[in-house]
Amino acid sequence: MLELSPLELYILIHLRRANADYANAIAKRLKFPREEVMHTLRRFEEACIVERTPGSAIKKSEARFKLTLEVRKHHLYFSLSREGEHLLRSLLKRGVAQYFKERYSEEAFELLEFLKKAGCENHLHISKALSIPAERTRILLETLRDEGLVDLCRAKVLKRKHRRAKLKRETRTHHKYYRVTRLYELIAREGL
């Protein structure tokens, strides 16, 4: 089976929901660079996972996220091919927790869910809360950051609403604080 990155997985999920869409719309929704999304779509097209939609116009029934009933196509619209549907269906049967466990480690999904609930948190507090060694937590966080699932909190002072795991009014950032990205939130929302 093809090993998919989280970005590739989300693009397949998005195309299944939208029925047909173009790279710029997907990139805006994800807040990812358009070139990266377009490169992924072209690779999928070469692998026969997605296909271009024919015609010069597209109707709302074909592209569910369109606001008007029919629009002229000014972009390359892609939709899932039969092979793409089968691939996504096999991934959806396994579930989101299993996907992250197989791709990263046993603790990855647990860590991501903790960060989703906690807001911004440092690796030391995460390792204590989840009973994972601190060094392994830091390495896992950096791996997830490289994949676009986790990002750094840039604020110098974190308020209570940003750091829900530790109930202090404010926290000065002396360490690196991590949070989940929109990519993870959208994948988790789909519930795989």
Task: Walk me through the structure.
This protein is of the alpha+beta class. The chain has 2 domains: 6-94, Arc Repressor Mutant, subunit A; 100-190, Arc Repressor Mutant, subunit A (Orthogonal Bundle), CATH 1.10.10. Helices cover 50% and strands 14% of the residues. It has 9 helices and 9 strands. The strands form 4 sheets. It has a 3-stranded antiparallel β-sheet with strand order 5-9-6. The two termini are 17 Å apart.
Please sum up the structure shown.
By secondary structure, the protein is of the alpha+beta class. It has 2 domains: 6-94, Orthogonal Bundle (Arc Repressor Mutant, subunit A); 100-190, Winged helix-like DNA-binding domain superfamily/Winged helix DNA-binding domain (Arc Repressor Mutant, subunit A, Orthogonal Bundle).
Strand content: 5-15%
Mean pLDDT: 81
Tell me the count of domains. 2
Rg, Å, rounded: 19 Å
Q: H/E element string?
A: HHHEEEEHHHEHHEEEEH
What are the low-pLDDT stretches, counting only 5+ consecutive residues below 50? none
Secondary structure class reads: alpha+beta
Q: How many angstroms does the end-to-end distance come to? A: 17 Å
Total number of strands: 9
CATH architecture of the largest domain: Orthogonal Bundle
What is the CATH top level name of the largest domain?
A: Mainly Alpha
At CATH level 3, the topology of the largest domain is Arc Repressor Mutant, subunit A
